[in-house]
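Q: I have 397 residues here and want to know how they pack in 3D. Can you give me a structure?
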Amino acid sequence: MATHVSRRNFMGGVAATVGYLSTRPSAELWAQGGPAAVAAQRARGPMTPEMYDRMAKIANNENNWGPPESVMKAMNAAWKYVGRYGYPDGNIVEAIAEHHGVKPENVLLGAGSGEILDVVGTTYLLGGKKVLGCDPSYGSVYQHATAIKAEAIKVALKPDYTQNISQMIEMANRHAAEIGLFYLCNPNNPTGVVVPKQEVEAVVRNIPKDMPILIDEAYHHFVDDPNYEESIKYVLEGRPVVVARTFSKIAGLAAMRLGYAIAPAPIVAKMRPFSMGSINALVKHGGVASLKDTQAQAEVKARVKALRTKCSDDLRAHGYRVIPSQTNFFMVHLGGRQVQPVIEEFRTREILVGRPFPPMTDHLRVSIGTADEMDRFMKAFKEIFPKRERQTNAAGA
């Protein structure tokens, strides 16, 4: 059914979504934090640039060092194109294809990987189909499904915070006629835990062969786990796999909005009508430069790993358990407290931390910022939470 939906109908759905969100004040915030979160935001009012600049920003899994000099230089050189439509774009699609050993017809650009996730959802969930994934995970796919009147089948994480792949495979086969999309976030957001390569392969080999699989690899650059493997090889095999990537994280281009999908050419062709193509001239040139600057990426990864390790160790020494992470963020257990009031306590100290992720509402997600920002976070954490007996079991909470 998705292949017969016109762009006009799709835009109508987008308009309906915008209308839905506009008629429910702070709809996403309400869903994530409840009425207390909405009331707190209303009481605060808008944040001025001066207020924002004072904040330690460790809420949104950004690269707090920003883009490297090579990327800034490339974007600055592209300013001369901003008044043009048919401008040279640095051959961004060809550069991505070459980087991954695929063809240009295997690449679809998006305004961040968020647009890619929405495009995949629209392509495969119209007509009453469901998305199958774990819970909690990155909520964009599930929220988009709700917006287009689709549903989600969510499988709870295991007690060790890994995804319950065997149960997800079983659900995919049991409900094959209902499911339009299988979703894996790897590493998972908000937990930072990877799906091992053997389990990804089990999904690819053991669910219905024509069921599309969306694998969100927004944080793959940060992974050191030898049991992790990127999934583009399945695209090369011709499997119905869509790999979503972003320049928002390690490349430091979150506000510039550039992401992409790697998928078999027929899937890219099916998704393309739902893509808006609203990507600016500057970031295309920045993206090409970022792909080439592997040294800058390695430096960011090293900083993130060092600061993540130090902060996690400090939290455990203070008596609070941390889920081992392979990303540029981690989750800390709050010792029985609920996260929404804690978020507000950090904010009064000019520190922005992650939003609630139901059902893990007794965990706080913390992004890795600069050394100064992590020091501010740890100082505030010790003010808010009393010291307890040292925690040595990193996997538990």
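Q: Anything worth noting?
A: The first helix runs from residue 7 to 23. Confidence is low (pLDDT under 50) at residues 1-34.
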